[in-house]
Amino acid sequence: MFNDIDNFYDEFFSLLIDDETYGNTIKHSIHKFEPKEYLKGYDFYTDNDKLFRYLRDNIINNEYDYFMEKMMKKYNFNIQECAKKLWIGEKEIKELYKQGNIIGLHSHTHPTNIIKFAKQDQLYEYSTNKKILEDIIGEKIICMSHPCGLYNNDTLDILKHLGIKIGFRSNMVPKDNTNYEYLREDHINILNKIKEKNI
Question: What is the pTM of this model?
Answer without folding.
Answer: 0.80
